[in-house]
Amino acid sequence: MKAKEQRTEKRREKHAEKNLAKHAEARTAEQPAHILAGRHAIVEAIKAGRGINRILLADGLHGNSVHELRDLAREHGITVDVVGRAKLDAAVPEGVRHQGALAYVAPVAYVAVEEIIASARERGEDPLLLLLDGIEDPQNLGALLRTADAAGVHGILLPRRHSVPLTETVARVSAGALEYVPVARIGNIAQTMRALKEQGFWIAGTDMAGEEMYDRANLTGALVLVIGSEGRGMSRLTRDLCDFTVRLPMHGKINSLNASVAGAILMYEALRQRTAKAAVQHG
């Protein structure tokens, strides 16, 4: 009887071990939060307005679902890269079927520029936007998001090309600010700037040789603050389209500041001026 009980207990232990192995295998097969695998899943995500940074398709992939996916991506301005199937296999956990397609998904959904502007005006505030021209460091983007939330910036405009997208690293560095500061993905920077000017926005660019000292320039009203890349600053066309440029005082040996630091100074100067203006109007 005792031997029978021991055999029963061993069977139970073996069964429990199998269950644990199954659960561990299931966890391994789960997709990471930043990756979406499978053609149908990606198509539906695009239709639902998910923030998708980039799509990878396996070389030689054909069929109606592939054409639909490519068309949707083109319509929404999403970059599609054709790669070897081995790269897709390496990008997903073992057990996840990618069907020759996967997408890198932003931690939050991008929003339309018009939504950001409308939200600011519904609150009775002049929209303050931050346009990032060539920011490629996720640490800088995360820090800028964090300051934007603290300084009352209504939204950030992020170009699709030559800019870091919203990633898990950006979300982590932002310390939660990404949940509160809306980000719009824009295509052509010049077209966006021209369209905003037509809506009454003034555009101020940051430049080492700026026309005005940052604290002397008028940073009130509907305004776009442009922050250039970490090394090159603003592109020539972006600079030419600015209504005015501002500079920060540099008294040391180094002639430039980190993009997130320069952006923080300008955002808080804009906040200071707007707060003072509001106090006068309501005083």
From TrEMBL:
One of its GO terms (biological process) is methylation. It comes from the Bacteria. Residues 1-28 have a biased composition (Basic and acidic residues). Keywords: Methyltransferase, Transferase. The keyword S-adenosyl-L-methionine does not apply. Its EC number is 2.1.1.-. Gene3D superfamilies: 3.30.1330.30, 3.40.1280.10. Residues 1-31 are annotated as: Disordered. CDD domains: SpoU-like_RlmB. One of its GO terms (cellular component) is cytosol. Residues 35-111 form the RNA 2-O ribose methyltransferase substrate binding domain. One of its GO terms (molecular function) is RNA methyltransferase activity. SMART domains: SpoU_sub_bind. The keyword Transferase applies. Transmembrane segments: none annotated. Belongs to the class IV-like SAM-binding methyltransferase superfamily. RNA methyltransferase TrmH family. This is 23S rRNA (Guanosine-2'-O-)-methyltransferase RlmB.
